[in-house]
Amino acid sequence: MSSNSIHKYLGVVKHRFGVTEEADRIGLTTGLRGRMWSELLQTEVAIMPGKGKLVLTGKLGEVMQESAQAALSYVRSRGRM
Hints:
Layout: H1 6-10, E1 28-33, E2 39-44, H2 62-78
Antiparallel strand pairs: 1-2
């Protein structure tokens, strides 16, 4: 059995642990998660009409919430007025 035949027997890869996106995509960023920065994760963003409030979904710890707020502050400081 060769490494090329693994997909034939196991099927499609379900998880890509530790792999970054192959091409840049607007609205998607790669971040680090874990106490020892042990896991890569993808974070997506969408812009929509509203009052400009930041909405975070899912279970995020304080550090991730602070990072999201810092990212929003950075974007606002660089955006058009």
